[in-house]
Structures are given as C-alpha cells and as structure tokens.
Write a structure and sequence with these properties.
- It contains six helices and no strands.
- With 214 residues, it is mostly helical.
- α4 packs parallel to α6.
C-alpha cells in the first residue's frame, strides 16, 4: 500500500506522457470540437504536473524515477503543443495565426527547444556521475507561463473559429474579450521566452559545481 502511494505521482506523470500524442492529433485538426477537446486534455495534463508535484512534496513521495520522469513529461508536453502550433500557424488564414505574432517564428522553437536540449544533456551527464538533478523553481515558473500561453492559444483557436459561426464578431463583448485574450496569448509567449533563457542561466549557476568536479 505504501509503495502504491509512493508511486502515485509517477503514475500521474506517465499519464501526462501518454496524453502527448493525443494532443498532437487533436491540435492539428481544424475542427473546433477537436480543438476544444485538445484544450481540455492540455489543461488536464498541465494541472496534473502541479498535482503530482504537490503530492510528492506534501507526502515525501519523491523518488529518483520521479525526478527523471517529470522533466521528460514536461518536455514532451512542450513538443506536443509547440510543434503543432508551428504547423497550424503557418497554414493559410488569419484564424490559424498566433495573436500579435502571426505565424510562429522558427527562432522561438529554437530558443525553447535549445534550452530543453541543453538542460537534458546536462542532466544525462550528471546522472552518469551519480547525481540526479530535478527541475528548479525558475524552470517550474517557466513551464507554468509556457503552459498558460499554450492553453490560451488553444482556447483562442476554438473561440476564433466559433465566433463567425455563432455571430459574435460584431458584439461589444466579443470585441473586448478578443482583444484581452489576444493580449494574454501574445504576452505570455514573450514572458515564457524571457524565462526560458533566465531559467537556463539559473540552472547552470546552481549546478556549476558538478562541472568543477568532473
């Protein structure tokens, strides 16, 4: 029984990993219903990250497997959303664009994925030397803001496709909401990019002693 409880955060993490390919298929669909389902799946996956972390810290259910699996799940969730976003945003039509950004620039993916690759390689290098490195607070904040961006964009894709069909486009409520929603989506991407670079610097500073004793 104790073992099963100890493994609960890891089970939640694995479920998040399993949800990633489902997300890819749903996000690439132009159907608003499937995009709405993608939004719900993504929110569930993002909240599961907070939940498994909370359980592990509150009850002391922290394992080396969890320290390794959790960052992997976070990275897979990032790939499973940003890559489809890149593909969708380069399709013809304003409805596919990212608010204020247009098509998602390739350099954005390079910055975000470049950071993840560097950190992953460093974790693997440290593991071979007997050190298991977990994600730090700055990395978690970065992941949270990035998830806010992804969730906001998914919801925008749903609402932007529904607005013409439901006759919302000319209403004051939609005009105000669409401006606010687009601003949140665009600005959270900017903040996520800043935190991506910052968190990598913090990660290096906090673990640089490993390099000195290699």
């Amino acid at each position: 029984m104790v073992l099963r409880r100890l493994d609960l955060p890891n089970v939640i993490t694995v479920a998040r990993i399993v949800a990633c390919p489902v997300l890819v298929v749903l996000i690439l669909s132009p159907d608003p219903a499937r995009l709405a389902l993608a939004f719900l799946v993504f929110v569930s996956a993002a909240l599961s990250d907070l939940w498994d972390g909370y359980l592990a810290r509150k009850h002391g259910w922290i394992t080396d497997a969890g320290k390794l699996l959790d960052p992997v799940a976070d990275k897979l969730l990032t790939v499973s959303t940003l890559v489809p976003f890149y593909v969708v945003s380069h399709r013809p039509g304003a409805v596919n664009e990212i608010p204020w950004w247009g098509a998602l620039p390739l350099w954005v993916l390079a910055v975000i994925f470049g950071r993840e690759i560097v950190v992953t390689l460093f974790r693997g290098w440290a593991l071979r030397r007997g050190s298991v490195l977990s994600a730090g607070p700055s990395g978690k904040i970065k992941a949270f803001i990035q998830n806010v961006f992804c969730g906001s964009l998914l919801l925008w894709y749903v609402l932007a496709r529904m607005a013409p069909e439901w006759g919302w486009e000319e209403t004051l409520g939609w005009i105000v909401w669409s401006w606010f929603h687009q601003a949140v989506t665009a600005l959270t991407l900017v903040v996520a990019l800043v935190l991506t670079v910052y968190s990598m610097g913090v990660y290096y500073r906090e673990n640089r002693q490993l390099l000195r004793h290699q």
